[in-house]
Design a protein that fits this description.
about 260 residues, single chain, binds flavin-adenine dinucleotide, nine-stranded mixed beta sheet, globular, alpha/beta
């Protein structure tokens, strides 16, 4: 089985984020594999163990993404591909990324492509479905369980806390949701082996793509943090007085009554 995982290098949103001049300042930020993509990597390795084949991890980024690709290799992925495109284009969006990935898949045999449900930074959840649309293959988002029998996939997906069961066929793209599995940590032997595993580097030219083919379809106008929360108000005194004051404020300040 030819198994592919698309991963994004993201900054760690557990850390303090600084917005400067309408953009996130990533200087000094810690970068990680997008956490949802770790579920995708784990599931890919489990599918390989069950069905044989090969797992390839692929990212659109720049040289710095090699670290995250090596981490995936250390987890047990067989091969990595870095499509080095960030420095070639001034403007990019989800379509740009998806188009580049789809072009790669058009030139490679795949049975299943796994990605994250969404990226914790950009968070649009568009890249996976957009790749599948461009390839004209079925896709299922937010999966929490998958079983493959030859060319049939039986999938459970998260629907706002409920479960939807879906049956579809391969080749297929899925995006992975929390609860699918427990991603493994890279082992020490895994880290040693990862240094020698193949990491292919491609550029847009190698995919016969030029700037026009991947032109962004959207433009980010501004990025800003939510306004700081005002301090809460604690009422004091007799309970009847507190209720009267609360109702008055809901009427005059909050204007919700
Ligand atoms: C030429 C170019 C330049 C870019 N420059 C920058 C930049 O300077 N800084 C920056 O932070 N981002 C940059 N990007 C990344 C781009 O903005 C995002 O990849 C894209 O918009 C994803 O949007 P999202 O975060 O909403 O992902 P979502 O759609 O929420 O991601 C869902 C899933 O799609 C997959 N995915 C998402 N992005 C990628 C990727 N890049 N490669 C492989 N799989 C992916 C992952 O599986 C992820 O879990 C650039 C992309 C391109 C093509």
């Amino acid at each position: 089985m030819n198994i592919f995982v698309i991963i994004k290098r993201t900054f760690d949103t557990e850390e303090k984020i600084v917005v400067q001049k309408g953009a996130i300042n990533t200087e000094g930020a810690e970068f990680i594999i997008n956490p949802y993509d770790e579920y995708a990597i784990e599931e890919a390795i489990q599918l390989k163990n069950e069905h044989d084949g090969e797992v390839t991890v692929i990212t659109v980024g720049n040289d710095e993404a090699e670290k995250e690709l090596r981490t995936a290799l250390a987890m047990g992925v067989d091969k990595a591909v870095l499509i080095n495109a960030y420095d070639d284009l001034e403007e990019s969006d989800e379509f740009t990324t998806a188009k580049i990935l789809a072009e790669y898949f058009n030139e490679n045999n795949y049975d299943i492509i796994l990605g994250g449900n969404l990226a914790i930074d950009g968070g649009s959840g568009q890249v996976g479905p957009c790749v599948a649309e461009l390839l004209d293959i079925p896709y299922v988002t937010a999966i929490t369980n998958i079983n493959i029998d030859k060319v049939t996939a039986t999938i459970e997906r998260d629907v706002e806390g409920d479960v939807e069961k879906v049956e579809t066929s391969l080749p297929l793209l899925v995006t992975c949701q929390q609860g699918l599995n427990e991603p493994r940590y890279p082992s020490l032997p895994g880290i040693m082996k990862a240094k020698k595993k193949p990491l292919e580097e491609l550029e847009l030219d190698d995919l016969d793509l030029d700037e026009d083919d991947v032109e962004a379809k959207t433009k980010t106008l501004d990025i800003f943090l939510p306004p700081e929360k005002e301090a809460g108000k604690v009422f004091e005194g007799e309970i009847d007085d507190q209720v009267t004051e609360l109702v008055a404020l809901l009427r005059t300040d909050a204007k919700v009554l």
